[in-house]
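Run log // design_07
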């Protein structure tokens, strides 16, 4: 897990096989360097959410804007 400068530990959304599967599905067509860049940007976004609202779980914030069918999968 990566810890940002704010000390917020990333990966709290449940890292593991399900996350890896989702990443493979979404990022499968990209070269590894672009996958790494996407992960870095996503981590920065999570850190920004946490910095702006420390009591807000970035995973919950993201789930709140997903369509209902997406939310039921994870």
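design_07 sequence
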């Amino acid at each position: 897990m990566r810890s940002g400068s704010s000390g917020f530990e990333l990966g709290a959304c449940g890292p593991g096989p399900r996350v890896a599967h989702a990443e493979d599905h979404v990022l499968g067509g990209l070269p590894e360097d672009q996958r790494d860049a996407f992960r870095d940007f996503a981590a920065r976004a999570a850190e920004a959410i946490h910095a702006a609202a420390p009591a807000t779980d970035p995973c919950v914030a993201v789930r709140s804007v997903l369509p209902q069918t997406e939310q039921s999968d994870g």
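The helical segments are 17-27, 32-52, 58-63, 68-71.
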